[in-house]
Amino acid sequence: MHTYFLGKEQVRGYLLDLFDRLLRSLRYRPPTVAVSIGPSGLELVNEMLHLEPALAELELLRGNYDKHTKTVDFMEGVEEVEKSTKGAHVLIVDSAIHSGSTMRKMYEKVESFGPESISTYGLVLKRSSKLIPSFFGLLIEPHDRAYFLLDRIPNMRVMRSGCLRPLEEKDVSADPIDCGVESISKFDWADLWYELQLDGKRHTYVYEANGRLMGYVSFKLMPDGSLLIDVLAVDRNAKGQGVGLNLLRWAETCGRTFDCRRIMLWAIVEEIPMRMYVGNDYQFVPGKEMKFVDESYMLMMKDIVYDPYYADLLKIE
Amino acid sequence: MKVGDLREFKTAAERLKLVKTCRCPSCNIVLQESITGCRSTHKGYVCSDCYYDMMGEALDSYPIGVSRMHRGA
After folding, report:
1. Residues 40-59 in B contacting A (C-alpha not used; CB under 8 Å)
2. DSSP secondary-structure letter at A88?
3. Which of A219, A181, A188 is nearest to A201 (CA)?
4. For position A115, what pLDDT does the model report?
C-alpha cells in the first residue's frame, strides 16, 4: 500500500496541462459547462479557477452522489441542469476516482440530458476503476491512497491508548486470558508462540495495558490473496475498553498494507450476533461451515478493495 | 452559478455549504473516502471510526476463532 501526497504545485501542474489541452488545443473541445462531484470536486474546480481565469464564465453545476439513496442529484435541481447541459460541452470533475461508480452514475445522468459532448476528469484514478475518465493525473493501485489540497492530512487511527505489539517470547509466561469461549481460552500464550515459530506467514499481535495482556489477534496471509483472521480474543475483564476494535482495525490495516483482496474469518454461530458481521459488510461464504460437538463455525469474508476479481485480472503474472 | 462566483466563498468551510454532502449518521462528519473512510453497515454508510466502534462492542464479547490443536494434543 502506497500513500501519495500531491502538493499545491503538483496539483497545479496537472491542472495547467489540462487547461492547455482543453482550452488551447485544436484536438479537444473547450467545455461550456462544468459539473463538480461532491465537496472534493468543487474544491478542485475552485483550484482550477485560480489558475485559469477564463474558466470563470463557465456554468457550474454542483452534483452529488448520495450513497445512502444511490441517486445522483444537483444543487441546481434537475430541470435547471437539463436546460444547462442540453447541447453543451460538459466537463465532469471529481478529485479522486476510486471504484468509478460515482463518476459513472454522474456521467449516465448528464448523458441523459442530451449534451453535445461529455469529458471527464479525475486528479487521481485507481487502476481498478470501472470508469476511465477522459483525462486523469495520477494513476494509483487499488490499495493506494492519495492526499491533496488538504490543510490537515488524516493519521491512521488504530487505538486510543494502550500498547499494541507483536507477540514476543517473554509473553509465554504471561497470565492467559479468558475470553469466555473455552475452546479459544485454553489456547495459551505458549501455544500462540509455538504456532508463530512454525508458520512464517502468520502474524500475532497482543494488546497490553497496565502491565497485562488483555487480548490478541492472530492472522495469516493466504495464497489466494486474502487475510485470514484466525483468532481475535479479548479477556472478559477487559470488555468495553475498545480492545477488540483496536485489534480488528490493526488486522484490517495490515490486510491493506499486504495488498490483500479480502478479509476472512470464522464466526462462532452460537455466540455471535449475526447481524454484527452481516450488517457490517461481511458475507457468508456458501458451503463453508464447520460443526463440532457444541460449536458451529461459519466462514465469512469482506472485500477490502473495489471489485477484487477485476483487480486480480489486471495482475498479469 | 458561474465558476467565477466561487471567488465570493473564500474558505473551504464556506464552499462546503454550496454542495450536498453525505454524512455519517453516527457522528455527522462529511464522508470522504480517503479522509474519513466510508464503510457500508446496517445503519447505512458510516465513517471508519464509527464503523470500528460498532464492531468493537460486539468483538469484546464474541471472539473470532476456530478450535485448534493444543500443544502435545
Report:
1. 40-45, 48-49, 51-59
2. -
3. A219
4. 96
